[in-house]
Amino acid sequence: MDRSYPSLGISVVSVIWLLMGMLNGVQIVQIVTTRPVSSEIFLPLGLISGLSIAYLVVGIGLWKTRSWAWKGAIVLAAIGIVGSFLQQPVRLFIALLLLCVGIYLILERDQFLSAEGTL
Q1: What's the pTM?
Q2: Where are the chain's structural domains?
Q3: Mean pLDDT computed over every residue of the chain
Q4: What are phi and psi of 90, to 5 degrees?
Q5: Which residues of 25-52 are buried (b: 16+ CB within 10 A; e: fewer)?
Q6: Quick check: 49 and 26 in contact, CB under 8 A?
Q7: At 32, phi and psi to the nearest 5?
Q8: 97: Cα separation from own chain's centroid
Q9: What is the pLDDT of residues 30-68, one digit of tens each?
Q10: What is the rounded distance in angstroms from the CA atom of residue 27 to the CA atom of residue 67?
Q11: Do 13 and 73 touch, CB atoms closer than 8 A?
Q12: Which of 62, 68, 54, 79 has its CA nearest to residue 7?
């Protein structure tokens, strides 16, 4: 369903996703500019870069209430929750935030239904 503007809740989730993408991007720039890049961090930098782009694209899609963005946001929330528990120290606040966002998106999935009534 295409809307001229998203609901307040979806707008907040979209902004959270956009901020996460930008913060990951800043983290990449900070790592690359503050020390020499060794071959050992190419894979982590590539993963963070991919996630940054995914967060930005999904954030824009959520703002436009696209059904693919809803699916992408659920996947990114799950990846973020798992990732926050793999980090040391465990980022419980981030995991709880992403869990709340995921639950909210599931509750509001009707906003992302396409004209055919499917996601």
Answers
A1: 0.81
A2: 8-111
A3: 85
A4: -60, 130
A5: beebeeeeeeeeeeeeeeeeeeebeebb
A6: no
A7: -70, -35
A8: 11
A9: 888 888 878 888 888 888 899 999 999 999 999 998 989
A10: 29
A11: yes
A12: 62
Cis peptide before 6 (omega within 30 of 0): no
Question: Rounded to whole angstroms, what are the CA distances from 81 to 36, 40, 46, 69, 88?
Answer: 30, 24, 19, 18, 13
HSE at residue 20, side-chain half, CA atoms within 13 A, is 26
Give, for 47, the enclosing helix (H) or strand (E). helix 42-63
Share of the chain above pLDDT 90, in %: 37
Neighbour-count burial of 107, counting CB atoms closer than 10 A to its CB (0-12 exposed, 13-18 middle, 19+ buried): exposed
Using a 10 angstrom Cβ sphere, with 0-12 exposed, 13-18 middle and 19 or more buried, the burial of residue 3 is: exposed
